[in-house]
Fold this protein.
Amino acid sequence: MATRKYDCPRRTSSAAATHEAILSNAHRLFLARGYAGVTIGEIAEAANVAVPTVYSSAGNKPSILTALLEPALTDPAIADTLAAVEASDNPRTVIELTAEGTRLTHERHWELVYGLFYRNPPGEPAVKAVLDRGADGYVQALTRVADRLVALDALRADVPRAEAVDILWFHLGPHAWMTLVGERAWPFDRAQTWTARSACQALLKDY
């Protein structure tokens, strides 16, 4: 006789709420004290759960930090931007869409990305691996933008495809946002307009 698996919606909901409480309190504590300055015990206390519950629900500190970063790496703005880029026949629009998409991704996750990972990056190898994956994905996305510009025959004669990727990274990569918005306190709107215009000037033959 087959055993019927029992799934209690209330228990599932409670587990999800516990997981969210752990992550949200860890997020708050990491920003307030830095990653190294927070213990699992303090996260447990803030979330009003036992230490073993933190480990069973969310894992160790690197796992918690990885979970907090994941939404930035999988933000729907990335896929939406690439779809719009590949549908556009206007080179300038391609770059402007890319500037808008990278701006949205950074702006939505700014507290965590700038406040924790840029200003005081954790030294955990597991966290670095996730950040490296994010950087690789970022370059791959910008490579698709460069390929679209190549397909449109839009690049300046002195800018080969590989260099176009580098120029896009310089103008629209993470450090541009960290420098202009984070260190120089530019509004996101101004930074988006400037980076898009600068990338157009550096890349497009008809700009």
Q: What stands out?
A: The chain has a mean pLDDT of 91. The longest helix spans residues 125-151.
